[in-house]
Design goal:
Layout lengths: L2 H18 L3 H16 L4 H6 L12 H13 L3 H9 L4 H4 L7 H11 L4 H9 L10 H19 L2 E2 H16 L6 E4 L1 H4 L4 E2 L2 E6 L3 H9 L4 E7 L3 E6 L4 E7 L4 H9 L2 H12 L3 E4 L2 E4 L2 H4 L8 E4 L3 H7 L15 H6 L14 E2 L13 H10 L4 E7 L11 H17 L4 E9 L10 H4 L4 E5 L8 H13 L5 E2 L17 H10 L3 E5 L9 H9 L4 E4 L11 H10 L13 H8 L3
Parallel strand pairs: 4-7, 11-12, 12-13, 13-14, 14-15, 15-16, 16-17
Antiparallel strand pairs: 1-3, 2-4, 5-6, 6-7, 8-9, 9-10
Bound molecules: 2'-deoxyguanosine-5'-triphosphate, calcium ion (2 copies) and zinc ion.
The site of 2'-deoxyguanosine-5'-triphosphate has 16 residues, from helix 11, helix 13 and helix 14.
Length: 583
């Protein structure tokens, strides 16, 4: 159990006591203890295990020390259990809404039976909140607005959306003379598909003016915290930004620590302890037993801190690419010097899914060709929709044949790149394909995908997809789960069975690089690789600019440990064509 988790439990007890109407001194004691625990740099869990006196910490008396010990050793807390037997613990969340304190939460619960945010929304929409003593129409509206904003905050930003806000902020901060270095850490640096918040790191010997510049950034809507070493703001977009200020000698250690993931860091720290080292955001320190428990984060002898690679090196590990830092075996691999040689954007030689004006794309085939040449590709595939997608102007066999004539003409003039004839063929309800076999046979690359009836019963959906990928002409299963991040859940079907069948029939699975899709996602790709499947990273471009989305796909591929050998569009043309020529 981490210090932050202990602090959160103490905070929860404080809020429940407040709702209950307990003695204010008692409430304050829990709040102070929570803050003290959160700020303490040694894990309290370790202190408990070593029998150290928790009462040495500021704000921690005998009673709360006993609670922390119980929490660490038992994983539960009697006083919390007693409180939640009386008061629903979901009321704590209610108090995070603007205008709802402990007293009001209690009133809403007692008078209207409101226990959750959802209950509160229903009651407010029915006008019941306005009727309560001490609320009124105005505060009812405020609550409804607050719920909306809270929900939005809970939501995670897609990485591409976050970039829109992060890049200008980073540029703005780097302009400041006191900023020696500025890096983005957290899930953003690990290139997760969505981010909860942004963790910035500024290296400076003059923190005051840097914090000042941060909090006065024009896009800031709210300053949550502006301390000496840490600041938090919420931008107008709703994106929360944490900024930490550190001295140059801690730069690498801070970058390591705040990049996470938390699970990765926990494993790393365990490794450090067995070597008599203490790893924190300030550095790696050789410590005696006493120093290991010291409240001074610089206790002991500093053995690393300035460079991130040194943090790993002092733990006898190779530097680990951020995308791998999810505690999925990367530390064991780094120990054996067996980290994968991850794919990079430069490794890609082509793009195998894009649309043109023949269906719903915005650019002509030749425009797309120019754009692919500009990106240094050796080949690309035009893969317009088939006729079942009527709204996209999907092509029937006759139109497809006409498209081939155009492709042949262009190819005759433009030998600098190879245009592959492809199609994104719809998988019909019963698993048949939306194009006749004699045309499928003549395509260079056949993609199949589900665009309709995404909510078939799982067994039917699975059978439908299996039937399609068993077709001997099929090369690629495009955007296999159909999800759209933060918008549409993946289809319900047996992905494992589909992956196994794809492996058996030499069907390549797509990693759709569009940041709204990223489908398959990292964990699925890891499984695909285990099953010996090949992957293709494609942009699904509908206009020239979309071709640049490739990098999001590469990020996701790196998170899945993929190398060039796993990804077919890193292959030279000849090898790619052989791979597409099944059987
Ligand atoms: P997010 O923001 O939900 O997308 O995910 P992260 O990974 O960016 O998480 P965040 O912002 O809460 O924290 C940033 C990094 O700081 C995290 O990846 C690792 C580090 N960190 C935060 N809390 C703890 C902690 O309690 N223990 C350890 N070891 N590291 C932590
Ligand atoms: Ca974060
Ligand atoms: Ca954060
Ligand atoms: Zn599609």
């Amino acid at each position: 159990m981490e210090n932050v988790e202990i602090a959160a439990v103490l905070e929860e007890v404080a809020t429940l006591l407040e709702i209950k109407g307990a003695n204010p001194f008692r409430i304050r004691a829990y709040q102070n203890a929570a803050r003290s625990v959160e700020e303490h740099s040694t894990p309290l869990k370790k202190m408990v295990e070593d029998g150290a006196a928790l009462t040495e910490l500021p704000g921690i008396g005998k009673e709360i020390a006993a609670h922390i010990t119980e929490l660490v050793l038992e994983g539960r807390l009697t006083v919390l259990d007693e409180l939640t037997a009386e008061i629903p613990s979901s009321l704590v969340e209610l108090t995070r809404l603007p205008g709802v304190g402990a007293k009001k939460a209690k009133k809403l619960w007692e008078a209207l039976g409101v226990e959750t945010i959802e209950d509160l929304k229903t009651a407010a929409q029915a006008g019941k909140v306005a009727e309560l003593d001490g609320f009124g129409e105005k505060s009812q509206q405020k609550i409804l607005k607050g719920i909306e904003a809270y929900r939005r905050r809970q939501g995670r930003f897609k990485i591409a959306d976050a970039e829109q806000h992060v890049e200008p902020l980073v540029a703005y901060l780097r302009q400041h003379r006191a900023v020696q270095r500025l890096e983005v850490a957290g899930s953003y640096r690990r290139r997760r598909e969505t981010v909860g918040d942004i963790d910035l790191l500024a290296i400076t010997t003059d923190p005051g003016p840097v914090m000042q510049r941060f909090t006065t950034y024009p896009e800031v809507r709210k300053v949550e915290l502006a301390g000496d070493t840490k600041g938090t703001v919420v931008l107008r977009s709703g994106l929360q930004i944490d900024l930490r200020l550190l001295p140059p000698e801690s730069c690498g250690a801070a970058l390591q620590y705040f990049t996470g993931s938390k699970e990765h860091n926990v494993r790393l720290r365990k490794r450090a302890v067995t070597r008599g080292l203490r790893v924190s955001e300030y550095g790696v320190f050789q410590v005696t037993e006493d120093e290991a428990e010291s409240a001074d984060p610089f206790a002991g002898t500093m053995v690393a801190g300035r460079e991130e690679a040194d943090v790993y090196a002092t733990l006898d590990l190779a530097w680990i690419p951020p995308e791998l830092r999810e505690d999925r075996g990367e530390i064991a691999a780094a120990e054996r010097d067996a980290l994968p040689d991850l794919i990079t954007l430069d490794d890609l030689r082509g793009d195998l899914q894009m649309h043109s004006t023949w269906s719903d794309g915005k650019n002509s085939i030749e425009d797309m060709l120019d754009a692919c040449v500009a990106r240094g590709y050796d080949y690309f595939a035009i893969t317009d929709h088939s006729k079942a997608l009527a709204m996209t102007g999907g092509l029937d066999a006759q139109k497809l044949a006409a498209q081939w004539e155009e492709i042949d003409q262009i190819a005759a003039r433009r030998s600098e790149i190879r245009v592959l004839k492809g199609m994104e063929v719809d998988i019909l309800r019963d698993g048949r394909l939306d194009l006749e076999d004699e045309f499928l046979e003549r395509l260079d690359v056949v993609l199949v995908s589900v665009h309709s009836l995404l909510d078939l019963p799982p067994a039917k959906q699975t059978a439908r997809i299996l039937a399609a990928i068993r077709h001997p002409e099929v090369n690629i299963l495009a955007h296999p789960t159909g999800r759209q991040i933060n918008r549409r859940d993946p289809m319900q079907f047996d992905l494992e069975e589909v992956l196994q069948c794809a492996a058996e029939h030499e069907v390549i699975v797509e990693l759709n690089a569009h940041p709204d899709r990223l489908d398959l996602k990292d964990s699925h790709l890891i499984r695909a690789k285990e099953l010996g499947l090949r992957v293709v990273i494609s942009t699904d471009a509908h206009r020239i600019g979309d071709l640049d989305l490739m990098r999001y796909g590469v990020d996701q591929a790196r998170r899945a440990w993929l190398t060039t050998g796993d990804v077919v569009n890193t292959f030279p043309l000849k090898r790619l064509l052989e791979t597409l020529q099944k059987r």
